[in-house]
Structure prediction request, 221 residues.
Amino acid sequence: MRKIKGAAFISLDGVIQAPGGPTEDPTGGFGHGGWLAPIGDMEAFEPIGRLFGGPFDLLLGRRTYDIFAAYWPYAGEEEAEIRDRFNACTKYVLTQGDQPLEWDKSIRLGGMDALAEVRAGDGPDLVIQGSSTIYPQLLEANLLDELTLMIFPVVLGRGKRLFGDGTPARGLEVTEKTVTSRGTAVITYRPTGPVDTAAITPPSASEREEARQQAMAEGRW
Prediction:
């Protein structure tokens, strides 16, 4: 069985939109494209090097696929190492659209059932880059095996988030962690299943708390 591994550059407030440059993805009026370069450091990129250091295939949402397909086949020799790896690997694209996928070795997947079949088969691990919209679906389907976040010391305020609306509640455990010299937290997680809950302290029995509970029940709080 193959594994599905995600990796994302992310701000402290959860934004992953357009870290690479102003023209990468300005949709929704996002005005901070290229936020990564001024604060990035080589230590923070080590997990990316490990993910792409061995055999891999790519798993992409449709918009990230469009960004990659418009860039990597045309990248220059200074980026030949990653360009050639991306061109040679299979690109699995999660999309329900019928637009052509013209980048060589691109395969359309219509949903989680199709992805589960790919994951259960033989081949290299599937690596996600960007593609924020697919993470909630992967968690819901219990298909995400590993997630590495490079959390940079910046707050962006708005933009596409890794876990947006519709994300199911899930627990995760930390399997590896480090902080770079410039303050980027690099943390690898493994999903563990549904979220457990428990009260930290016994509930208050005061009249004021009873009144607050009543107000919440009536929608007045």
